[in-house]
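Trying the structure run again after the queue cleared.
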Amino acid sequence: MSGNLSIEQVTGHLLGSGEAGPALLGSRCLSCSEHYFPVTSSCTRCCGTELGACTLGGQGVLWSWTVQGFLPKSPYNSGESAESFQPYGVGYIQLPCGLKVESRLTCADPQQLQIGMPMQLVEVGYGQSEGRELRTFAFAPADCAVQETQ
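Done. Tokens:
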């Protein structure tokens, strides 16, 4: 982090932390056991309304991916311009419970991404807004995750 920037974690309500690092927070239906991310109050599988909070973990496998090669339209706001924008990976990560979560990826190199590869949840900076560094969650290839968080 540089100079006078403060940090704003824009996804704090989506993340918890544990011994293994950051973890996604979600819901699990108490009637049919369906999992959801983010936390929700009703089940689309059985129409139940009794859901409990659960930790979904921070590991999964890459189910599908693409590279975002141009600056997204509003409401996306990373503080970048079209000239300073850096492409980034976007993918679906299948969690051990079977749920697929859309996420930014730390890697945008197609040569390093492979469907089925193990992925690890990390926190990353993704831009600046009004003098604040913006941080969010992303998934990194599991063999690179330790390097991503440093």
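The longest strand covers residues 118-129. Worth checking whether this holds up in the mutant runs.
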